[in-house]
Batch of 2 targets.
Target 1
Amino acid sequence: MFSAPVLTQVLINGLSLSAIYVLIALGFTLLFGIMKVVNFAHGSLAMLGGYALHYYFGEFKLPYVVAILLAGLTVASASMVLEWLVFRRFYQKMFQSMIGLLGLDIAIVYTCVLVFDVYERSIPAALDSMVAIGSVSIPADKLMIIGIAVVVLLAFWGFMSLTRYGLAVRAASEDIEIAEAQGVNTRRIYQLAFFLAIFMTAIAGAIYAQTYALSPFMGERPLMVAFIVVILGGMGSIPGAALGGVLFGFGESFLSTFYGSAASTFVSFGVVIALLVVRPWGLLGKPER
Amino acid sequence: MSNTSLNPPVARQTAAAPRGMKVLAIGVLVTVILAVLPHVADNAFILAIGALILLNMIGALSLHLIIRTGHISFSHAGFMGVGAYACALSVLKLGVSPFVGLAIGAAASGLLALVVGPIVLRLTGKYFVLVTFLLGEIIRLVLVEWESVTGGSNGLSSIPDLHAGWNSPLAQYYIALVAAVLVAALCIRLLMSETGRAMDAVREAQRVTECAGVPVIRLKVGIFVLGCALVGLQGGLLAFFMHYIDPTTFGMTDSLNLVVMNVLGGMYNVVGPIVGAVFLVALPELLRGYVEIQRILFGVALIVVMASFSSGLVGLATMLRRKVHQ
Amino acid sequence: MYAKKLLGSLVLTALGAGMALSVHAQETLKIGGVGPLSGGGTAWGLAVQRGVQMAIDEVNAQGGLKVGDKTYKPELVMYDDKYTATGGRTAAERLVNYDKVNFVIGPIGTPSAMAVVPITNPAKVIVLSDGYAPDILKQGGQNGYNFRSMNSNVEFGPAMVKWLKETHPQVKKVALIVPNDATGQVVMPTLGQTYKDNGYTVWSESYERGSKEFTPLLTRMMAQGVDILDLNLNAPGEAGLLVKQARQVGYKGLIWQVGGPGIDEVNDIAGPNAEGFMSYDVFDFREPSAQKFVDTYKKKWSGVINAQTPGWYNSAKILFKALQNAGTVTDTDKVRSALENLSGYDAGIYGPVVWGGQKAYGVNRQLLNKFWITQIKDGKPQTLTTLSPVKE
């Protein structure tokens, strides 16, 4: 069982799982880090990204890169309405945000049931070929997902560390009142952070829908994954989301292949609970003052 | 409000007494109305819904106790499941009488809470939420995977009645009423006592309360155990009513429902969960026919309530009452 | 702040006014329906709703259902059970005690069916359900009023495995991958046993229902050297992903499904990877005799036709025929006998009614439907053969 081809396959599976998990977790952790909202509507917003890609790529047949960027932009822009209507009433109110956004999640999902119908659809793959690496082959679109994850992480890191807006966002996440005192326009910063977070979420959802399946209920699992990855890595920490995604992805690949999926779920939940008890701010998060 | 530090103890007692009498009077009145209800609304379906609301009240109230100490548990339906399965298994496999089964169910949940409590209750607000979220899932997974004992996803069937012959909707309604009233009385009495004040103090200012000599962790664990034992009781009763239990009855959605009952109704007032239970069970029944629209309206209602009055419907009622009195 | 609170309460009041109590007009014959209308199982619940509605529309177009010397207008009262036990119970209680129906079609899932039967049997309400757990029929026993009108794997499994043995003699080892829900935990041992009885070695693995990533599991499977992967009762979405991911991981053996069915979905999701995939099928939508059914469906609803819809249409038609034979819509004992004696009646899509199940459940209340095996060849589904369950 523990042979070289199997191990190579496990490694490759782990890599592609990690990529998707990281993408899903990024938007979630950003909203928590800056606005202190627990976005229970995360899954449904990802799902909207999936439907957007379905129309742009599957129906209108735009080139893939254009389609996916447009999907992200469309959903993020449309969500600004939701930001004004719903999200901003819950900023810095962590507990209210949980229940309120849960309500938003239900509303979005069932509106989509009415609009799109329940049956599962699929989005055609971006690339059909298989790429051979040593003795195993990996689908080209999985490599593409890994590439996208790396690019998004780097771009985001670049934005946060190297631009003025990124600095303002970081200041706001450290201490909102002092940042305001320093002249940062918190309303604008919130809107910017929200837009970025939803943009990433929509793209993650589009990729998820393409890899698996698209339906109004698609978002449940991404939400669960986002929760676990972000708890692992630290709520509010971007490098934490990356680390958590990688750990969870590889862990799942290794454990499921060698010990079955029940073992994998039990171990990952157990580890996360143990971590929460011993080090609740996650691996890379900041302890509460 | 009473200046407790200035008034002598005798005066404090007298101040509390009329309030206690008022609560008791209201409680007795409500109980009598509910007991007479079946003779007015003689429909088996309404009785069945009524029984369901009353059972859920047990869950909502027991969760309320835990919430008053400042911890919002998302694993409450999991503990209900532990109680239900322990009760059903002891009746089906060990052959004990159903009433003993109920006690075993409550004890099992309480025991699990006692084991887990001291560890998880040390965590603050949001981390506690996340841990209980995962804990609920683990309980559900154990119920699903441990097929030899729990029957796995196919659950346990052919569970008998609580007492031979107590099978009709009317009988189940009265059983639920008795249980709910007892639990409500217990919770209200507890919250009105010294312990209740300690619970609120722990929630609002933990460090200060500790300095005042209140054994914080012991209090939290005690309330947690009590709350979980009570919901274990609800689980046992549910098993006897449905004659069948499976893991889907005790999942994340059900834990969420119990939390929402408290939040919508009012988290810091004991009437809140009662109102929330009625609202959350009755409303989907009233809105049958338009499933999607119903769900959308429900979601919007959650947003509106959470954004506008975080003290829930009870808070809304208080606000309206104050306006009327002005 | 104050204005915000006032606005909030106004909105809430408006919402409350907008939530109207749904009123059921007085119709002549209410037929109860139970199935998931929300959550992941909605497609199956809609299959119940639409299949039964099609039968009702057909009857009403002919002027109503003539039973005895009265003519009735059937009406479907359908409730969501959310695919859970509590949901099924509440739906059943509402149908039996509030709407006062005598006949229920559905539910689909085991948890729901297991919770419905303890309510409908004492009330003498006839139920035509699905749900794979054998207990559903065993629980009612001879005095029960519930029938099962869709095949479970006990009915179609053995015939399919025998067919496999005859047509693909080189296959020796089977992999079963199942979700760990109620149906999965029932099917895995029984189907596994069927394979073993026919001389195969079986490797099985379960996964958490809802997951969509199977590459680790499939990698694990590949290390076992299996000749055929059986997707048995996996839902169409998961089946499609299993086929696609199995091929992507490099699995070269046979893939088929003793269960489902979900051939169109598998074809859609797995694309070129679905070539050669074989499956149990409950209905041949391509047969000329099925055209009428497809056209009628498409006149009312759009989208993919869930494969279970014809089965529920069939159930409703059988019920109507039994009502006519019994001559009453209120005496359910007479209707129950009429149902049991309905052998030979052909509703037009499944051939003559055959009741069986005595050996497996102790009562002859399982409808034995004929079924098909379909294969995807050159990107399109083709019928390979038609089979019938063995009457025992």
Target 2
Amino acid sequence: MNTQPAAATVARRAFVPDWGARLAWAALAVYVVYATGTLEISLERVWRGLDNAGRFLARMFPPNTEADKLELIQSGIVESLQIAVLATVIGVLLSLPLGLAAARNLSTPALSWAARALIAVLRSFHPVIVAILFVKAVGFGALAGVLALIVSTLGFVGKLFAEVVEEMNPKQVEAVRATGAGFSNVLIMGVMPQVFARFIGLSVYQFDSNLRNSTMVGIVGGGGIGAPLFTAYQRFDYDVVFTILIIIIALILLCELFSAQVRKVFQ
Amino acid sequence: MKDLTPPAQAPAPRTWVRFTPIERALRSIFYLICVAAVVWSLRTIEVIPEFLYDAPEQTADLFRRMWPFDWGFYPEAVHHALIETFHIATLGTLLALLMAVPLSFLAARNFTPQPMLNALAQFIFVSSRSVNSLIWALLFVAIFGPGALAGVMSIAFRSIGFVGKIFSEALEEVSRGPVEALTAAGAPRSMIIVKGYWPQAEPAFWSVALLRWDINIRESAVLGLVGAGGIGVALDAALNNLYWDQVGLILAVIFVVVMLTEVVTSAIRSRIIR
């Protein structure tokens, strides 16, 4: 009896309009119009830009393949690769203890709180901004880039590794503990076998991300291909820019293929 | 007479091995590659040791110059730039969503059973993701000139691949039931999208939108270094003038904004998803 009116309304209208959601969409539309206005974005400007784009693309072709330019690009790319390798390996090794310390099911509350706060601080800045600070601290060059990317590796791998450790099965840990194993043996026999594959996956993903960013830290003096890229760009040598971009993209795609293989091996 | 069966030969002690020999060999190769890469990098990377000796001194100097912050700089230049950064990140994310959703339907193999179109959409996603947002910014500054428009476009183009990859995977996992029911009832294609696919993929859509917005707030802070508008422009100017007290203020402001974004996104996430 009581439910009948409700059932009748449901029958009349299969899809009830959600006024709250509609209001939110309308607010969003108002915001878009307002924000576009404050940024001085107009259709006319976009139109003029498309005109420019044609000329810009025309200047990029054909890519510059002069020998001296290629030599410069090669040394920059090699340095970017070195930065990515060193930052990933050092950062990943350091984020292993950091992630374990941040995991609430393994460490003490105070320690995990401190580790989480550290991770939050490390994650909050873009690697290029961190690189600015390290360039001031240790001078221009690859070292600043390596240190900056170590920071972002610690932030990313540390955070996600802690989550992986928190999600693991506690039974195996308890079983190892029950045999009287010490803390280090609990880690090696109880924790690591469960989380190691995901840890490698995270590290490999971070290597890809570090490689992308290692091509960028050069803009602020952190070494790698970024500096030649930015110089060529400021000199309007768009054909050199295009060569560098092709090489960067090819390198990144190669590394993604490599990391997909690594992930398969460790699954 | 009892039939004495000869005692079964004691089985050879079995050793349990977790991985097959091939797995172990592949893993060893991976470790070998890692070690080789590290050794190669360490031996050939150029580090100037002289710079390292005074690193502690330089770091102390850095913080001495940063503190106290130049608070007067905030109303003068930082506030406006901060609002601009926020708009760049938000508009860029919205534009990316606008472009990524149709492409995701194109990429989802259950919605578009055309391998060529799937591959085309995947190609767009991959090329969007493999170019760093700063490189996108360089390209768009060359096209649109310095300013926020270039920033919005670079954020949008960088985000398409990320959003598209995750959202198209969510679309492919949609249960066929409601879609088939709507098809059988003669619903037009637009209604199948709105009432069949969308309700099932909506949680994934909101979670990827929020995640990308959070990332974009961080990314848009650096776009100004190459002239694409936002707080990075103020940062670049302060750095070039060596006004470290202004740099310190800007970094502190970015830190606060990023923390606030994280709080806001996690609050929204727990309210509208789940």
